[in-house]
Every structure is written in structure tokens, then in C-alpha cells.
Write the C-alpha cells for this entry.
Amino acid sequence: MRRRPEVLTEVREAPEREKATRVLVEHHEVLRGLMRRLLATPRSEPGRRRALADELFDELRMHEVIEEEIFYPAMRDVTPGIAAAWSEHRQLSDQLAALVRADPRTGRFDRELGVMHDALESHAHLDEEREMFPEIERFADEELLVELGDRLRDRLRRLRSSRRTRMVLRLQRALLRRTAR
């Protein structure tokens, strides 16, 4: 005779919903963590440096996608900072390409990494977290920010788990490295 499964007596709490600005700050922390690990990895470990640079490339590209597809369009009328943030993404993408092209055993890689660190910190911390996000939280509807947070988190989860996305990112990195020769 089959036993009936026990009934759960505990109510599981749903994950706490967060504002879009908080979701983005959390992802900035992921990017900063990768940057710290990359900066701490010596030239004598080029394979590890390459792997970390690849991971940074992937996460930063996905970050750009979620901001540009979801967050920036929804907030463009809330703050003029969106236009500047969008153009900073172009600069970050260019610098990221320069980093990926560089040989991780060289001083050039170190220089590109330093510039990348400064550009990322300027964009994420100074421009978005200290200026744009507080302004958005002051003037945007809180319910909208929470709904956008859900959408950002879901889109990032789908990008990370997508085989197609991983393949496209791997191809982009390979093409960048090929043009470095």
C-alpha cells in the first residue's frame, strides 16, 4: 500500500522581491568580485587570468543586456543620467574588448585591466549607484521598481542558463582574440 506524502506544515517564504536598483547593485558586486579576483591573479597564472577575463566579459555583457533591454528604457523619462549611462556602456564594451584581446602574460593585459577597473568603477559606483539610482528611487514608482527588479533578475537568470547565449559570448571572445593578431 502506498503511503501518502506528509503534508508540509511550514509555509515556505517566497524570495524577497527587490527593487531594480538593488538587483543591479547586487550584479555590480558580482562584477567587482570578478575584477578583484582578476587583479589579484599574477601573470604567472595566464590560464586563470584568461578564464576570469572571460567570466568578466560574459557577466558584463549580460549586465549590459539587462540594463539596456529593461532598465534604461523604463527609466529614461525619470532621469537624464540614462543617456550618459548608455554611452558609458559603449566605452566599457570597447575597453572589455581591449582586455580580452590582450595576452594575459603581458604588461599590456595589466594596463588594459587597470583601465577596465577604473571605467567599471566609475560607471557602476560613481555614476549609477551614487547619482542615478538615488534619483530614480526618489522619483520612480516603487511598485514599478520592484516589478523591474523581478524582470531584471529573471532575464539575467535566463541569459546565464542559455546555451545559445554562452555560445554567442564564446564566439564573440574568439573573434576578438582573432582580431588581436
Notes: Confidence is low (pLDDT under 50) at residues 4-12. The CA atoms of residues 76 and 82 lie 6 Å apart. The chain has six helices and no strands.
